[in-house]
Design a protein that fits this description.
The structure holds 2 protein chains of 2 kinds. Chain A is mainly α. Chain A contains 7 helices and no strands. Chain A is globular, with a radius of gyration of 18 Å. Chain B is mostly helical. Chain B has 7 helices and no strands. The chains are: A mainly alpha, B mainly alpha.
Chain lengths: ~180, ~190
C-alpha cells in the first residue's frame, strides 16, 4: 500500500469510529489497535502501547495519542489525518444536535440513554485496558518481563481505581513504571 | 457571569489543554466555572452530561458547546482550535523523538513499563466508572459481554456498541417506566 492508500483506509475507519465513540475517546483505542496492529500490521503492539503511554504523559486531549499512531504509520500527514478523522465527525454531529435540538435539560429518554450507555462504556473501557496491557507485555523480552508488565498494569489499575491514592497525579504512576521498566524489562 | 470573546475562547481552552495531563475535565470545570466565570456549576454539569450522550471526547464536546453558546460555529472552532492546535504540535515533537529512540535497548524497557502503567490507568478509569453504575444484574451482564467481546473475542467495536447499546438502553427505558420491579432488580 502507498502512504496515500494507508491514510485513506485509516481515515474511513477512524471517521466511523468517531461516530460511535460514546463515553469518550479511549473507547475506540482497542478497535484502532485491531485495525492498525492486528489487521494491517503497520506498527507493532509494543509501539502502539508506547505511543498511547506517551500520549498520556503529554498535555492535551487523549485523542491526540492516535495522532502519534498516525505519525508512526504514515508520517506528518498521517498524524494530521488521524487527528482530524477522529475529531471531525463527532464534532459535526455534536454541533448539529446542539444547533437543531439544543436543549441540555434532562428528559426520560435522555435518562434511559445515559443509564443504558453506562454499562457498555464501562465494559469497553476495561477491555481497552486489557488490550493495551497485552500490547505492553508483548514488548518485553522474556516470560518474567511479560509477567512484570501485567503486574504493573494490574497494580496501577487497582490502585488508581479504588485505592486511597486514586487521586494521585497519573505522572507518578507513569514515572514509577518507567523506572521499573528501565531496570527490569 | 462573564462573556468571552472568540480570542478568549481560544486562549482559555488552550490553557485547559496544557494544564491537563491524563484527564482534562477537572481543569475545564475550574477554568470555566471558577477562574473565568463563563458558566455556573449547574450549566457546566448540564453541558458536560449532554456531551456525554454524544460520541466524541468529553472535553471536545464541552469545547464545542461552550464555543457555540457564545459565538456560534466560529466560537466552536476557536474553542476546538485552542484545545487541539498547540498540543498537536507538542505531540508531533514527541512522535519525532519516539521515531529516533524507539530501538534503543534500555528504552524499550521504559516504554514497556509506561505502556503497562498507562493500560493500568485506563483500567483504573474503568473501575471508577464501574463504581458509578447501577448495581443490577443486567448492567453487570452488559459490562461483561462488552468487555469479553472486545478484549477476548476481538469483535469490531461497531457490532458491540450497536448491538449492546440497543439492548441496554431498551432495558434502562423499560425499568425506568416500571421503577420498582424490573427483571434485574434485586
Amino acid at each position: 500500500m502507498t502512504t496515500l492508500e494507508i491514510i485513506g483506509a485509516s481515515v474511513l475507519h477512524l471517521a466511523m469510529l468517531s461516530l460511535i465513540s460514546i463515553g469518550g475517546m479511549h473507547v475506540v483505542f482497542p478497535d484502532i489497535y485491531r485495525f492498525v496492529v492486528e489487521q494491517h500490521q503497520w506498527i507493532t503492539g509494543a509501539q502502539f502501547s508506547a505511543l498511547v503511554a506517551l500520549g498520556q504523559s503529554a498535555p492535551g486531549p487523549n485523542l491526540l495519542a492516535m495522532a502519534l499512531v498516525g505519525f508512526q504509520v504514515a508520517g506528518f500527514w498521517g498524524a494530521v489525518a488521524y487527528a482530524l478523522a477522529l475529531v471531525t465527525p463527532s464534532s459535526l454531529l455534536c454541533y448539529g444536535v446542539m444547533r437543531f435540538a439544543g436543549r441540555t435539560a434532562e428528559s426520560p429518554w435522555k435518562r434511559a440513554l445515559r443509564i443504558g450507555f453506562g454499562p457498555v462504556t464501562v465494559g469497553v473501557v476495561i477491555a481497552s485496558g486489557i488490550v493495551l496491557a497485552r500490547a505492553a507485555a508483548s514488548g518485553t523480552q522474556d516470560d518474567l518481563g511479560w509477567a512484570l508488565a501485567w503486574a504493573i498494569a494490574a497494580a496501577v489499575g487497582l490502585l488508581s481505581g479504588v485505592g486511597r491514592v486514586s487521586k494521585l497525579n497519573p505522572l507518578w504512576w507513569l514515572g514509577g513504571a518507567a523506572l521499573l521498566g528501565g531496570l527490569f524489562l | 457571569m462573564n462573556s468571552p470573546s472568540q480570542r478568549d475562547l481560544f486562549r482559555v481552552f488552550l490553557r485547559i489543554a496544557l494544564s491537563g495531563i491524563g484527564g482534562v475535565l477537572p481543569h475545564a470545570r475550574h477554568a470555566l466555572v471558577e477562574a473565568e466565570r463563563w458558566l455556573d456549576d449547574a450549566e457546566f454539569t448540564a453541558i458536560l452530561s449532554a456531551g456525554q450522550l454524544l460520541p466524541g471526547g468529553n472535553i471536545i464536546n464541552v469545547a464545542i458547546m461552550v464555543g457555540m453558546r457564545f459565538h456560534g460555529a466560529r466560537g466552536a472552532l476557536m474553542a476546538l482550535g485552542g484545545l487541539l492546535l498547540v498540543p498537536f504540535f507538542i505531540f508531533i515533537g514527541l512522535a519525532l523523538i519516539f521515531r529516533e529512540v524507539q530501538d534503543v535497548r534500555w528504552l524499550k524497557g521504559v516504554f514497556a513499563g509506561i505502556g503497562a502503567a498507562s493500560a493500568g490507568l485506563i483500567l483504573g478509569t474503568g473501575i471508577k466508572l464501574l463504581k458509578a453504575q447501577p448495581k443490577r444484574v443486567w448492567a453487570y451482564a452488559v459490562m461483561t459481554l462488552a468487555c469479553v467481546a472486545i478484549a477476548f473475542l476481538k469483535l469490531p467495536l461497531i457490532w458491540v456498541v450497536g448491538g449492546l447499546c440497543v439492548v441496554s438502553v431498551a432495558i434502562a427505558w423499560w425499568l425506568d417506566a416500571t421503577p420498582h420491579k424490573g427483571p434485574g432488580a434485586r
